[in-house]
Amino acid sequence: MHKIGVFVCWCGSNIAATVDVKAVAEAASKEPCVVYATDYQYMCSESGQNLIIDAIKEHNLTGVVICSCSPRMHETTFRKAAQKAGLNPYMVEIANIREQCSWIHKDMAEATAKAIVLARAAIAKVQLNKPLIAGESEVTKRCLVIGGGIAGIQTALDVAEAGFPVDIVEKKPTIGGKMAQLDKTFPTLDCAACILTPRMVEAGAHENITLHTYSEVEEVSGFVGNFTVKIRKKARKVKMDLCTGCGLCTEKCPMKKQPNEFNMGLDKRGAIYIPFAQAVPKVPVIDVEACLKFKTGKCGICSKVCTAGAIDYEQQDEIIEQKYGAIVLATGFDQIKPTKFGELGYSQYPDVVTSLEYERLMNAAGPTKGHLLRPSDGKPPKEIVFVQCVGSRGQSCRDKSYCSKVCCMYTAKHAILTKDHYPDTNIHVFYIDERTPGKNFDEFYRRAVEQYGVDYIKGQVGKVYEENGKLMVQGSDLLANEQITLAADMVVLAAAIEPDKTARSLGTMLTASMDTNDFFTEAHAKLRPVESPTAGVFLSGMCQGPKDIPETVSQAGAAAVKVIGLLTKDKLLGNPCVAHSDEMLCNGCSQCARVCPYGAITYVDKEFRVPGPKRVETRRVAVVNEAVCQGCGACTVTCPSTAMDLKGFSNRQIMSEVDAICK
Amino acid sequence: MQGIIEKVTELLDNGTVDRVLAWKAGEFSYDRTPAVFDKESGLYGLVYDSFCVNNLSKYLIEESKKDGKVLVLMKPCDSYGLNMLIKEHRVDREKIYVLGVPCKCKVSVDKIKATGLTGILDIVEEGNDIKVTTVYGDTTLDRKDVLCDKCMVCKDKVVVVYDEKIESDETAGIEKLDRMAEVEALEAMTPDERFNFWRSQLSKCIRCNACRNVCPICSCTKCVFDNDNTGISSKANVDSFEENMFHIVRAYHVAGRCTDCGECSRVCPQNIPLHLLNRKFIKEMNELYGTYQAGTDAEAKDPLTAFTKEDAEPSVIYNR
Questions:
Q1: Which of B305, B308, B311, B319 to mutate to test the interface with A (most CBs of A within 10 A)?
Q2: Nearest residue on chain B to A588, judged by CA atoms?
Q3: DSSP string covering A312-337, please?
């Protein structure tokens, strides 16, 4: 017979303002096996915990029910308190009467009735709880960073500096990411390449960092501290150990007709190419879709000119397998191609460009060698219209609902840089709101307006069309309350940013949850912003949400600290709420093994005594490896005969909760 | 038939197999019962004709536990069930010799009776004629008019797992009906109409468990409905909700595994169209995960227990 204590928390006014806590304690005290029930202002405080500890000792409690906030908040706190009092920590159940009750109800009578029902369910469950003991698992002291942009590089450097080996997997032939494509950075206007490339070199040369460029994560299995990852190293067709990076092959390649991705397709590259001069590793890659050798079998010029003999047309993709303790997602972002915004003419007019394309046009290493020349005729534009929030902050299906955050600032930057180089250029910016919170951000924007005389127009653009060789931009000026049409030589669209397309499949592989926009969600929006809800998976940079470079770098550092904190541990305490199989009920059908994401289930042939002349029969039954099982419960719902059950969340416990609620 | 007897005799005589799982004639000449024959008993009474409708695959669970090898006569639609039993390790394939037998659709005695004939003494099949002798006189029916419902929507006539098979060119000569037509009719109903349809159908259930016991997929060592610990076991109906839940739970348990052999509906003494529950699941899964028929291949990954990155998310798709 259990002796159960029920502790109802007020959570200040969070619960007590909507739930009659005394009535809940009173009702709970009448439930079977409850020998003690009380309420307290802050159950999680030290005195609140002492109240629990004293009651356990005084009343010899065998089970404890805390009616409080979500178990995600304080379950560990209360389990530890129970443990201090000598009770098995898994004899504690939480009834969530805050998030699932007081916060969502307004009517006190209704909320109180619901809180009583939730308490009753927890009381019914705890009666079926069994003491559980957690096992331990080793931690592989190696970190995987997926994505080699500034976020991934910074996390990798910080983890590597702490002494742990780090692998960076980057799908492009070089690390550097989007920052490498930027010209100058706001608000200080230092050159992106000048501040990024030393970090790239450092990452490439660091003794604790291994770069897997032109590689992709193929498969992930395991769990926190023990991930096993298969990485596909795509065939570069160039031997990395022999190549000196001289670039002769890229110069001699006759197939210089490929759109250069690094310059946003504004110029051409060869079939064998190095994305940009400061690439790390500085080893070219052959684009087999474009290469004459692969298309026709003829050519082979690159191989002939390579003095190091590094060209290897036979090279194949290679799959490597590595174990990691922690995984950092730093998959970054892309800028949308605003093709869905037909009225803005992006697909129609070459002089309507995105801001990232403009960035390349401004860059000294870009297609125009830093001279601002418009794509259509190579002439310098005199009238430029910038359009902000293209695809951001919208309601329609072609829009992102969120603010892309960086566009206000980089548009001000574009305006200032353009005016700096070409003072005779007129610049107009259409905006919805100017959002410049950040250190020295508003000052920077005001410089654009006041010092450089950039014409900011509050309003949106409805249409861009061509007339007499000019791009006519028709928009509304909300402050003047009039429709205006500007004749421009060039239009720059601050197109929305979105998470990289590969993020979703990685999220699926890692069971890292995503929001509706495909940004990775954090474990807690405020208190755990760099951790994914999946243990051992951390978030760095734009893959979690729009942010600028300093924010990205700070978050990357924060993710590194979390990784280091994990990798410093030798062992992790496991979760004892794992699956187990009742071999008397098991059919050996293998369905549980098929759905198990952790490969925790194996099968053995076992002899059982049976009635009848044969006395024994051999049956195939499931066995759970408790060290590998993560307690997700997929097997328990798949098993048709209820042979699979989850400790701490058994079918009977859940049914008894349901029964208590329906009573 | 003669070819089958010769083959079975040969395999029994040369020691390839020790026993034979087939059908024998029952009390009436048109009754067919699954039966096991061996050398000692001889093949006396073994029969394979248009009345041999029972799915034999499930009997192999117990038969393959015994010593020696058992030969089984396997109709095309039953072989899907056998593949599922192999896939789920419920039978020992090594101890089974599968002799595939042709099928030109089976004749339903219930349908013959439903034509209004009573006092039936004997039913004989001659070509496409079904000759019925009753106490009131003789009648001849067209075979096509009295075929089993499940045969009218037959998946195909291919034995999907076998060691050896006996071929035949004979066909029933019927136009196959659309297998999903009945499901579509249910889908066209309003939720209330559909709810009432199922309530009225399922309330006929007497919990005889025939559907479960005949199902080649429902082969649990201990069924949840027989297990006191699950909290859902009972034979008698406490309320009318209970038999609804029985069938819904059963449909969920066989989802993604049901071979649509139609035995559940055929054996139901209350004529509940149970196959429609399972078939709805099949249709749903085909739409979401691509066409899949459980039992076609014992190695195939089935949509509900295999995960791919391309998997559709039902909630997302149906919202669109």
A1: B305
A2: B89
A3: -TT---EEEEEEESEEEE---EEEPP
Q: What percent of chain B has pLDDT over 70?
A: 95
B313 confidence band (pLDDT: 50, 70, 90): confident
Same domain as B215, residue B129: no
Could you say which DSSP state residue A63 is in? E
Contacts of B65 in chain A (CB under 8 A): 617
Question: Is 70 exceeded by the pLDDT of residue B292?
Answer: yes
> Measuring CA to CA, how many Å separate A517 from each of A356, A521, A555?
21, 10, 20
How far is the first Cα of chain A from the last one, in angstroms, to the nearest whole number? 21
Give the per-residue pLDDT at B30.
85
Beta bridge partners of A272: A286
Q: Contacts of residue A588 in chain B, CB cutoff 8 Å?
A: 88-90
Inter-chain Cβ pairs, chain A and chain B, closer than 8 A: 55
In this prediction, residue B194 carries a pLDDT of 95
Q: Which residue of B has its CA nearest to A592?
A: B305
Nearest CA in chain B to A618: B65
Give tens-digit pLDDT for B43-86. 888 999 999 999 999 999 999 998 899 999 999 999 999 999 99
Q: Round to whole Å and give the CA distance between A274 and B275.
A: 62
Residue B293: domain span: 178-320
Structure tokens at A425: 């250029």
Same domain, B163 and B32: yes
Q: Are strands A644-646 and A579-581 parallel, antiparallel or unpaired?
A: antiparallel
Name, in order, each residue with C-beta under 8 angstroms of A45's C-beta and a sequence gap of 6 or more: none
Low-confidence ranges of chain A (pLDDT < 50): none
Predicted pLDDT of residue B235: 57
> Which chain B residues have a beta carbon less than 8 Å from that of A595?
305, 307
Same domain, B239 and B305: yes
Beta bridge partners of A222: A227
ipTM of the assembly? 0.87
The Cα A545–Cα A652 span in angstroms is 41
B221 min Cα distance to partner chain A (Å): 6
Half-sphere exposure of A149 (CA within 13 A, CB side): 26
Domains defined for chain A, CATH in brackets: 4-126 (3.40.50), 143-234+318-332+500-567 (3.50.50.60), 248-305 (no CATH), 335-497 (3.50.50.60), 579-647 (3.30.70.20)
Pairwise CB contact (< 8 Å): A591 & B231? no
CA nearest B254 in A: which residue?
A640
How confident is the model over A534-562, as pLDDT tens digits? 889 999 999 999 999 999 999 999 999 99
So what's the pLDDT on residue A620? 93
- Calpha distance A156→A416 (Å, rounded): 34
Tell me if B153 is assigned to some domain. no
| Residues in A lying within 8 Å of B, measured between beta carbons | 505, 508-509, 584-591, 594-595, 597, 603, 617, 619-620, 638, 640-642, 651-652, 655
Q: Which one of A518, A582, A585, A652 would you mutate to disrupt binding with B, by most B Cβ within 10 Å of its Cβ?
A: A585
Question: At B104, which amino acid appears?
Answer: K
Two structure tokens written together for A577 = 């709420």
CA atoms of A51 and A72, how far apart (whole Å): 21
State the Cα–Cα distance between residues A279 and A243, nearest whole angstrom: 14
For residue B223, which residues of chain A lie inside 8 Å, CB to CB? 641
Cis ω for the linkage preceding A350 (within 30 of 0):
no
Least Cα distance to A641 among B170, B23, B221 occurs for B221
pTM of the model: 0.74
